[in-house]
Design brief:
By secondary structure, the protein is mostly helical. It has 2 domains: about 190 residues, Fumarase/aspartase (N-terminal domain) (Fumarase C, Chain B, domain 1, Orthogonal Bundle); about 290 residues, Up-down Bundle (Fumarase C, Chain A, domain 2). Helix content is about 55%, strand content about 5%. It is built from 18 helices and 9 strands. The strands form 4 sheets. The protein has a 3-stranded antiparallel β-sheet with strand order 4-6-7. Strands 1-2 form a two-stranded parallel sheet. The chain has a two-stranded antiparallel sheet with strand order 3-5. Strand 8 and strand 9 form a beta hairpin. Helix 4 packs across helix 9, helix 9 packs antiparallel against helix 13 and helix 15 packs antiparallel against helix 16.
Length: about 500
């Protein structure tokens, strides 16, 4: 089913379908009129000799340098080439694909002044799965994601590199093999392609979609751990949540109770102990607060995905050309830092539950869930690995948005560092998935030792799903592959 872009109604579900299911994309027929009208404003100002930033002037500190009309095309080409100075490992093809989609949607709003041909080539690359090779480092997150988007734009003009048909090749070769021709940038178009927040937003959208799935799994695996440790369910009672009326807290408590309904392992206050440690008792409060962050992040991403974020903006109804600051990534920078902090905490509490599962001083299970404690170490070192990832997350969660370094001779004197925040949030999520996988392995092993037949129906199903990836541990083995297999299942299959 084709997804139509008009710059206003793109949803996260649609983004996921384009990124993961490769659904085709077209510009909505109703959007073309605004696109043509904004382009007409650019052409008219050019013909009248008016001074417009980035059209008849240089960029950044060069904004006061007037460019002769005969050089406006060279200006745009020079912009793309000079700004393509990204460094480091490239973004994944999925991120590159998301950047194509989000930039096309931004241009479809009709405030950027690009030509129909240029926007259509973006869409063509998306549909033909020509994914620009885009270095992941080098953006300050204000004036837009200049370096990453310049690498994207290089492919449109037949330069740079692209993933196509399973290999990396030049942008020109990729276009040629797909039956497409490079575009020739005209006035304003280079600036329209690179002046935006699509790198940080692309990474942010993918991070959010993965975080949402992890939050769901975390509730389920926490419930399995609760059973394996014979946890006290009274703390999850609805009335306890209602007197602190955060809806997300109540949702998590209800979800955990639904997982353990029918369990023969969970306990009530006073049966074994009066109350559990915080990592069990406070699951609704901690997981619920993390869901509050996800709600905030989702709201900001939906706005940014459907925003005009370049400069200057062309208002065709009035003919005004306004130099503003919509390219500044501060809203997404804050959201990404917040997302990273929240997801780091999801791993933090999970690691504490792992410790309770393997530490013989904290439970009545075999030490480290070992089949032969002493001779075999069991799952002892998986907790080390989880602790390492949690510690790494704490360094990655330092907010990128608190930093700013002036650029362009102090013309651009405050920047967001939002792309760094997005990259760090995504790396944190990568680590969180593996911490939760370790908890899943430990909880499943403990459940086997308790007796799987005593699990609740819903957690028994989760146990079976974990066991499909990770067999019962009856002999020490290398656990790295177990962790990676389960982490992959969580990212691909868990619902």
């Amino acid at each position: 089913m084709t997804i139509y872009l008009d710059g206003n109604g793109l949803t996260l579900d649609q983004v996921a379908r384009v990124l993961y299911d490769f659904e085709s994309v077209e510009i909505h027929p109703n959007a073309w009129q605004n696109i043509e009208k904004s382009r007409a404003v650019v052409e008219r100002n050019l013909a009248e000799g008016n001074v417009i930033y980035g059209v008849t002037t240089g960029f950044g500190k060069f904004s006061d340098v007037v460019i002769p009309v005969g050089d406006v095309e060279a200006l745009q080409l020079n912009l793309i080439r000079s700004h393509a100075c990204g460094i480091g490992d490239p973004f994944s093809e999925r991120v590159s694909r998301a950047m194509l989609l989000l930039r096309a949607n931004a241009l479809a709003k009709g405030y950027s002044g690009c030509r129909k041909e240029t926007l259509q080539r973006l869409v063509d690359c998306l549909n033909q799965q020509i994914h620009p090779v885009i270095p992941s480092q080098g953006s300050l997150g204000a004036s837009g994601d200049l370096a990453p988007l310049a690498h994207l734009a290089l492919v449109l003009i037949g330069e740079g590199k692209a993933h196509y048909d399973g290999r990396v090749m030049s942008g020109g070769e990729a276009l040629s093999q797909a039956g497409l021709t490079p575009i020739r940038l005209q006035a304003k178009e280079g600036l329209a392609l690179i002046n935006g927040t699509q790198a940080m937003t692309a990474v942010g959208v993918i991070a959010y979609l993965e975080a949402e799935r992890l939050a769901e799994f975390a509730d389920g695996v926490a419930a399995l751990t609760l059973e394996a440790l014979r946890g006290v369910v009274d703390a999850f009672a609805p009335e306890a949540q209602d007197v602190r009326p955060y809806p997300e807290q109540r949702e998590v408590a209800d979800r955990v109770l639904s997982y353990v309904e029918g369990s023969q392992l969970t306990t009530r206050q006073g049966e074994i102990r009066v109350q559990d440690a915080y990592s069990l008792r406070c699951i609704p409060q901690v997981h619920g607060a993390i869901r509050q962050v996800l709600t905030y992040v989702k709201e900001k991403l939906l706005i940014e995905m459907n925003a005009a974020t370049d400069n200057p903006l062309i208002f065709s109804d009035t003919g005004r050309v306004i130099s503003g600051g919509n390219f500044h990534g501060q809203p997404i920078a804050f959201a990404m830092d917040f997302l990273g902090i929240a997801m780091a905490e999801l791993a933090n509490i999970s690691e504490r539950r792992i410790e309770r599962l393997v530490n013989p001083q904290l439970n009545d299970l075999p030490a480290f869930l070992s089949p032969q404690p002493g001779l075999q170490s069991g799952l002892m070192i998986t907790q080390y690995a989880a602790a390492s990832l949690v510690s790494e997350n704490k360094t990655l969660a330092h907010p990128a948005s608190v930093d700013s370094i002036p650029s362009s001779a102090n013309q651009e004197d405050h920047v967001s560092m939002g792309t760094i925040g997005a990259r760090h949030a995504h790396q944190i999520i990568h680590n969180v998935r593996r911490v939760l996988a370790i908890e899943g392995i430990c909880a499943a092993q403990a459940a086997d030792l308790r007796g799987v037949d005593r699990l609740a129906p819903k957690t028994r199903k989760l146990h079976q799903q974990i066991r499909a990836s990770v067999p019962f541990i009856d002999q020490d083995r290398a656990y790295s592959e177990d962790i990676e297999r389960l982490a992959h299942w969580i990212s691909q299959s868990f619902v």
